[in-house]
Amino acid sequence: MTIDMLGERVKRTEDPKFITGKGRYLDDIQMPGMTHIAILRSPYAHANIRSIDTSAAKSMPGVIAVFTGADIPYNPLPMAWPAGGVAGIRNNINTPRTLATDSVKWSGEGVAAVVAETAEQAHDALEAITVDWEPLPTVVDAEKATQPGAVQLHENAPNNIVFEWTVGDKAGTDAAVDAAEVVVRQRIVNQRLIPNPMEVRGDIGWYNPGTDEYTVWMSSQTPHIQRLLLTAFVTGIPEHKVRCISPDVGGAFGTKIFCYADMALVMFASKAIGGRPVKWVEGRRESYQSTIHGRDHITYLEIAGKRDGTITGLRVKTFANLGGRLSTIGPGIPTTLYGRVLSGCYKIPNVYCEVTGVYTNTTFVDAYRGAGRPEATYVIERAMDLFAAEIGMDRAELRRRNFIAPDAFPYDNPSGLGTASGGAKIYIDSGNYEPAMDMALAAVGYADLAATKAEAASRGKLLGLGFSTYIEVCGVAPSKWIGAVGEGWGAAMWESANIRVHLTGKTVVTVGTQPQGQGHETTYAQVISHELGIPMDDIVIQHSDTLGTPFGYGSYGSRTSSVGMTAAIKAATKIREKARKFAAHMLEASVDDIEIDGPNYFVKGSPDKKKTIQEIAFALDLGFDPPEGMEPYLDETAYWDTPNCTWPFGTHVAIVEIDKETGQVDLVRYLAVDDVGKKINPMIVDGQLHGGIAQGVGQALWEGAVYSDDGQLLSGSMLDYAMPRASWFPDIELHETVTPSPVNPLGVKGVGEAGAIASTAAVSNAVMDALAPLGIRHLDMPYTPQTVWHAIQTAEVSR
Amino acid sequence: MESVALVVNGVARTVEVEPRRLLVQLIREDLGLTGTHVGCDTSQCGACTVHMDGVAVKSCTVLAVQADGSSVTTIEGMAPEGGLHPLQAAFWEKHGLQCGFCTPGMIMTAADLLASDTDPDDDAIRHALEGNFCRCTGYHNIVAAIREAANKMQVGAATSAEGAPR
Amino acid sequence: MSMAGFGYTRPATLDEALADLAKHGPDAKLIAGGHSLLPLMKMRLASVGHLVDIGRLRELKGIRDWNGGLAIGAATTYREVLGSALVRDRFPLLIEGLDDIGDIQVRNRGTLGGSLAHADPASDMPALALALDAELLLRSSGGERTVKVDGFFHGAFVSDLHPDEVMVEIRIPASPDGAGTSYVELTQPASGYSLVGVAVVLAKSGGTVSHVRVGVTGVADHAYRASAVESTLMGSDGGSAAIAAAAAHAADGQEVNSDIHADREYRTAMATAFTRRSVESAAARAT
Ligand SMILES: Cc1cc2nc3c(=O)[nH]c(=O)nc-3n(C[C@H](O)[C@H](O)[C@H](O)COP(=O)(O)OP(=O)(O)OC[C@H]3O[C@@H](n4cnc5c(N)ncnc54)[C@H](O)[C@@H]3O)c2cc1C
Ligand code: FES
Ligand code: FES
Which of A213, A328, B74, C25 is the most exposed place for a label (fewest CB within 10 A)? Predict the structure, then answer.
């Protein structure tokens, strides 16, 4: 008897290898004859390359080859998600080359590379390369970069503007703001973050001269997409000549979605040196320059409404810093994934948002956990608190008055979810926001806040409570929507799965999604075990290799459970149907009379006349005696394109205490109520929330990439970029409501990003609540001790 | 080249290395024990933590030649093949890992903590993890796992003491 | 991650180490725990021709009585000091100060002598040694000398230690009877080093402060004794008002550091705040 594990806290099947040190990450791979490549990176944030002298490096010990950009005939990297797509918005595109040829646009852009027998020798030789630089002036601030007279980075991008994108009803929103009883305005900065998965990126390229084929191992979330981009767009090598493999991936959080120059470089280098494998692994400090950063918005928000707490308009202008050149989907993040969900879970009749994408002399910016939605949530949740303070209304009450009502779904939001989707409408399909907020506020003791604050004050601490009532769009996305109107990147977003039940009943599920710690092998197996009645132990999930798995778009945007697993369920359904037909044949019954109970296929009314799925697989896979027209083998492939995104929501609450004398902020309590729909494995869901919350708290309190005016990354290593540590967190309290998603059979919504989307705003609101008695209205993150201390000093002086 | 003789996971090894070779490189590249990871270049992250002569060290901040004559335990040596150390079991049980990259270092550091403090409270556990970063778990379940392992190890110690011949 | 190449020897005795140092001249550098040196070499910020490993020299290890105080071998690790009953008994200040250095792994390798020799302006041991009136036994092939820690630090990573010298021992005299001690720090969140760290030893007699030492780290280009704080406190009643008045002088005469974590104004204010807190707590502990 197979025990149904769907919805259970099943221990993860992938863990035994990890806890015993037998995981296999990119850098763990060693191959005979393997060489190492190191990349010389620009010390300047903006400079022309006059010449590069590699002669000394070439004669260094162990050096096999030295390359500069001039040696490499490849195209620049592709940019796959222009803002507004083909919808008529101009995108001034500049992307990196495999190695820069004429100029560099950020400190850390690669300009030359050394292949050597050992990594040490490669690094030694880098020091022998001399570049004749012509340093140029720099600009690092996105808003300043668009001002007249600013340094220009690219000829095709006047005023450093990548695009100017808008969404919503300008005239209506202008009118609403003009007519409003109350308008609250605030400039807010969503600072740049360095994502920091614990495993840095790396690639190994191997060109096989015998077959003229390439294999690229990459620490990536998207091996299928990388094969497509590297072949069709960058190298011109035919797609079927390249195989991409992601081994175990040590965290990604968005950073490993993209096409990076180093991927092309290891392919080129391996061929150039005659087919020895070439390994590149970035150092952590190198990673801070060569792997994407996240966020970095400067936003002017205006929220308008009545004194009774009715919000009537939201007008937002955002400068999105995209770095010195564009990453793969950089422009898509601050537009589609930001502007279109700005109004959050509120019924705001008039919304208008302008986003200017900007080039600056900084590392490129792209999707980091939440990607656009944390920025949107931060804007709207800060705006709600500011508005409540302005009209003197309780923050919860203001939200209550403006939530989209539970009977208003499907809800077509005015920041353009539905309107921009051409024929394919997407809409917020479900939600019930108030119960989640009430549950969270009750659990945290919101009613007793005054007493809690007084108690803290008696210990000399300023206590603040903040919350955010978020929604998230995930499970991206209907291909028709993302593709048809040019809203999305140049790709569809369906997923794929193949299931083969082999002769012994052992089952292989191959999928196009790609895990980086989310436990997909466990959850897919839970789902397929439930669908087919096959024990989890007999199911293996294969992924992450373009050779063995069907094409898929990979894992990001919290889409694997809702999109990928639905494809797998569809494949399982096909398996069941075929098994049922074959069972009828074996049992000499009519198909309609065959009933299925887990692994058992039996004749209606006579449960002992049965065949198990394993027996069916054995007979059908041998294929001695299939019925007329039936092909042998239980082997089915399915594709699934979701009809809509999914819409998790919830309320997160943070309590902080501030030491007024030192500005130190202590997170003392964190509580969340999340509605992520049904859960395949609640243990894994909790883990995803914990991790996301910690990253979002990190943004609010500690993390921030800091550039000097001349484009040097001052927070250039873990010695200066504050990675959150265990001792800075309390235990995280999780609660739930469950509103199943109507768009997929599992009723799941996705949970990979929810924590990061909700938590930053909650903590920010808590800090502002604590500081409100001092007359401080808003501060930009992160709330480091010196930031808070300075604000307190200024407030006290002006009082 | 220098000759380094050391005992790794109970097995005597001799390796010829350049003086600049780090212990972590010796472990990963010369001995092929890739359970010990490298997560940074500034000695911050703890992914490379192993035990050297019984105490946790960051093997990226020890020269291989400095380990000459030492006894080193890596994650691969925490339990006999096929078995699990209580910490390994607890990390599995409590979902103390996601991508698994930080996990070996976490377990090695936690083992050092539990060797000197058999019943640490949550604060002590969190303090002990000061030099180990995890980007996936928010630490919540790591702390729970270490607490669980401490409990199990105490029970284990108590039972084996009771069962000892008098 | 990868370092430039260098030579390496691990002498068996201190005399051999001194000979090695002399032989390799300015190219040579000592390594003890390596937890300051190797991170710099990995960033290719320090270039070294030859390393002389003194990390295991018995002559540089151990903790022994020294005139009622303690002499601690320069290559003794933080862990060894933290585990010492003698230290716990005589110098709880060291326990309080060293317990927060880095992390378990760093404390397992890092040595007291290495920290003092390195003279990192943000490290903790220099402030503790200043407050404890420590002196250092230094030896070269030419002979031996002792120097007071007060005056030993000259600048960021610059001290009175000569390139051909090995620090053998850190000698800490017994503190006055009934002295209370305290170490408090404001930590740089990323690196874990101190933005401001203040070590205090304070004794009272007959209701007035009769002995006080205040060692401050993180604030200036090297750790220093806050002498204006000390002189203001001496002879006072050691009450809150006196302490607050004295703490205001914590950064007097110093060129205060400024970086992305703490600008000059903030750091100066924190020097005062943490000095006040540390003195308060030492005074409360004094008997
Ligand atoms: C991750 C991390 C976090 C840290 N956090 C902190 C912190 O919070 N607070 C803090 O104070 N420190 C911190 N440190 C630094 C650490 O405390 C010092 O590295 C350590 O104490 C130095 O001792 P060592 O034996 O490792 O020195 P080494 O690195 O071996 O040597 C340092 C320098 O001193 C010289 N030297 C060493 N011993 C002698 C000797 N006996 N005689 C003469 N010269 C000698 C060496 O030549 C070298 O120049 C941290 C280090 C790391 C890696
Ligand atoms: S790799 Fe050793 S501490 Fe990060
Ligand atoms: S589990 Fe991924 S870093 Fe800890």
Answer: C25
* End position of a domain, from candidates A640, A665, A688: A640
Question: Same domain for B54 and B115?
Answer: no
What are the pLDDT digits (tens) for A121-151?
999 999 999 999 999 999 999 999 999 999 9
Is the domain of B52 the same as that of B118?
Answer: no
DSSP state of A253: T
In the prediction, which pLDDT does A483 show?
65
Q: Exposed, middle or buried by CB within 10 Å (0-12, 13-18, 19+), for B40?
A: buried
Residues A592, A691, single domain; the answer is no
State the total domains in chain A: 3
**Mean pLDDT over the full length of chain C:** 96
B128 and chain C in contact, CB less than 8 A: yes
In a domain, A751, yes or no: yes
Residue C207's Cβ-side half-sphere holds a number of Cα atoms within 13 Å equal to 0
Subunit contact B42:A717, Cβ cutoff 8 A: yes
- Which residues lie with the beta carbon below 6 Å from any ligand 1 atom? B 43-44, 61; C 29-37, 39, 54, 60, 74-75, 101-102, 106, 109-111, 113-115, 117-118, 123-125, 161, 166-167, 192-193
CATH of the domain at A38: 3.90.1170.50
Looking at the fold, whether B73 and B14 belong to one and the same domain comes out as yes
Q: How many domains does chain B have?
A: 2
Phi, psi torsion values for A627, nearest 5 degrees: -65, 160
What is the predicted pLDDT for the residue at B164?
47
- Chosen for mutation from B22, B28, B37, B43 (greatest number of chain C CBs closer than 10 Å) is B43
Same domain for A671 and A627 = no
With contact defined as beta carbons under 8 Å apart, do A647 and A429 qualify?
yes
**Whether residues A351 and A427 fall in one domain:** yes
Instruction: Kindly state if the Cβ of B137 falls inside 6 Å of ligand 3.
Output: yes
At A379, which CATH number? 3.30.365.10
pLDDT for res A517: 86
Q: Give me the pLDDT at residue A236, please.
A: 97
Two tokens at A662?
Answer: 């030192």
Q: Mark whether B94 and B151 lie in a shared domain.
A: yes
Looking up tokens 């370092």, which residue turns up?
A: C3
**Residue ranges, chain A, pLDDT below 50:** 419-421, 485
Q: Say if CB C40 and CB C46 are below 8 A apart.
A: yes
Asked if residue B63 and residue B123 are part of one domain, the reply reads no
**Is B165 inside any structural domain?**
no
Q: Which atom of ligand 3 is nearest to the CA of B47?
A: 3
Judge if the beta carbon of residue B58 lies within 6 A of ligand 2.
yes
Q: Provide the residue range defining the domain that includes A587.
A: 494-640
Contact assignment for A789 to C266 by CB distance below 8 Å = yes
Range of the domain at B32: 2-77
Q: Are residues B130 and B154 in the same domain?
A: yes
Q: Of A640, A669, A703, which marks where a domain is finished?
A: A640
Does residue C225 carry a pLDDT above 70?
Answer: yes
B23, B28, B40: which to mutate for ligand 2, most atoms within 8 A of CB? B40
Query: Which structure tokens are listed for A507?
Result: 């089952």
Query: What's the complex ipTM?
Result: 0.96
Q: Are A425 and A644 in contact (CB under 8 A)?
A: no
CA pair distance A64, A71, nearest whole angstrom: 15
Number of the ligand 2 atom closest to the C-alpha atom of B37: 1
Claim to verify: residue A67 and residue A216 sit in the same structural domain: yes
Q: Which pLDDT tens digit goes with each residue over C53-82?
A: 999 999 999 999 999 999 999 999 999 999
Residues A209 and A324 both lie in one domain: no
How many C-alpha atoms does A732 have within 13 Å on its Cβ side?
30
Asked whether residue A158 is assigned to any structural domain, the reply reads: no
Substitution target in C44, C256, C265, C266 with the highest count of A β-carbons within 10 Å is C266
- Count Cβ atoms within 10 A of the Cβ of residue A111 and give its class: 0-12 exposed, 13-18 middle, 19 or more buried: buried
Identify the residue whose tokens are 């007999």: A538
